[in-house]
Amino acid sequence: MQIGQKDDFKKYFKIGISKQYSVGIIMVKTQKNIFMKSFFFNFLTIFLVVNHSFSYSQTTASTLLKNVNLIDGTGSASQNGIDILIQGDSIVKIQKGITAIGATQIDLSGKTLIPSLISAHTHVGTLKGNTSNAENYTRENILRHLKKYQDYGINNILVMGTDRQLIFKNSLRDSTVAGLLLGARLFSAGYGFNTPDDAPASWMNLLLRPKTAEEVPAMIEKLALLKPTVVKMWVDDHGGKAQKMKPEIYTAIINEAHKKGIRVAAHLFYANDASALIDAGLDIIAHSIRDKEVDAALLKKMKDKNVIYIPTLSLDEYAYIYGDKPYWIQDGFFKSSLEPGVYEMITSKEYQDKIKNSPDYEKNKTASKIGMINLKKIHNAGITVASGTDSGAYPIRAQGFSEHLEMELMVEAGLTPLQAITVSTKNAALAIGINNKYGLVQIGKKADFIVLKNSPEKDIKNTRTIESVWKDGKMVSKGVVKK
Ligand SMILES: [Zn+2]
Q1: Which of 143, 169, 174, 418 is least crowded, fewest Cβ atoms below 10 Å from its Cβ?
Q2: pLDDT at 200 (0 to 100)
Q3: Fold of 117-438
Q4: Burial 276-310 (b: 16+ CB within 10 A, else e)
């Protein structure tokens, strides 16, 4: 049986218990020879030893990272010469000059350590080669994508509404979240909500499409059984090409989701929709507002209602940039993130001319610019901005590279590199609701981080100089093998 199949949890814990129990028995025998104690004492000893061996097993592996330049994700400036002590899967000490007898010591002089990245808007499993469809959605393909994210330093992702039965039926999602499988942890919005009359791609055929508000409660009831991280909905006319979801429908979705304690994220484009959706109780904006600059009233509303804003700037750039031959197109760090055949497609003259001559080219470029201006305004207003990219939805939105490009674009929009890192770590953890464990390099948090050759504090592009990726206290990748 493959790990991650139906009985993963049972199996995992059974192995854990039997190992600990046998250790307990051996120790009890020794104790018995020495003390010749009563049955009661032996029973008590078994109990104590088994319990003790559980806590021992959790803290047994200690790693001491020496002398690193630390960017902890809070937005504070880097601190040099820092030691970090990891026990089991957690960070237990961060200071200068730690000594820890028995710990595996690693010298990280000259290297920079940042929290592993988190992407709060992605799509997984449907992409393969130049295609994106439902048939591609297999266990093998999903795990391949999760591994790719991890090689790019991304340990947690939220899939926004395009998942399929497979990941729920056999605990695949839960196994990734529990850290039982190699690759990023997959958090899921389950099946997103869209309009009934949209002509969807095959990978969107499981979307929930209520015709009336009355149909919504039963749909949310069913969806809630999957324990989605958020409920995702599309509120967009796709440039006038589709019908937009009606306010009574999205209001019902928000209300019903909130009754179940689930937050709601919306795909949107227009400032007016953002405003109306926030009035209806929306929690997360999952794309940039791109039709016009946000005004003071909308900023105030977003701030007052604690809305989280996920700009997906890279998606907007991908909508036109291949016509402009971006500087990174020859970069191995980018090329390695592409599915086979995509590089040939996007570098062909035919494709580049098609993008450049498209009637949407100027429109998309303008939308992208407005998105950048709005990000800066929204960030300045103190609204929580979280990183997401929409990577993996289509072949041109490369998984892994997009998350690094996103930070470069944030800096281009006016954020500092440290702010861009906080958006991609601490804030994205907040968006997924995993900030108790991930998003910061801090005492008590899980040891999830990346080690970089060069510091991104002055040049954000240095997040691409990954030397190792750590997940739950273990090194799981040496970064991307560049093409
Ligand atoms: Zn998306």
Answers
A1: 169
A2: 63
A3: TIM Barrel (3.20.20)
A4: bbbebbbbbbbbbbbbeebeeebbebbeeeebbbb
Asked if residues 208 and 223 have their Cβ atoms less than 8 Å apart, the reply is yes
Q: How remote is the CA of residue 166 from the centroid of ligand 1, in Å?
A: 19
Tally of CA atoms within 13 A in the half-sphere of 118 that contains its CB: 31
- Residue 350 CA to residue 41 CA, distance in Å, equals 81
Span from the CA of 330 to the centroid of ligand 1 (angstroms):
26
Give the Å distance between the CA of 24 and the centre of ligand 1. 50
390 C-alpha to center of ligand 1: Å? 4
pLDDT at residue 313 tops 80? yes
The rounded Å distance from CA 40 to ligand 1 centre is 60
CA distances from 165 to 3, 22, 31, 191 (A): 18, 39, 52, 9
Ligand 1 centroid, distance to 65 Cα (angstroms): 37
- At residue 55, the pLDDT reads 37
Name the residue with higher pLDDT: 460 or 31. Answer: 460
pLDDT tens for 356-383 read: 999 999 999 999 999 999 999 999 999 9
Question: Domain 62-114+470-477 - what CATH class?
Answer: mainly beta
Residue 317 CA, ligand 1 centroid: distance in Å: 15
Domain ranges of the chain: 8-57, 62-114+470-477, 117-438
**Ligand 1 geometric centre to CA of 169 (Å):** 23
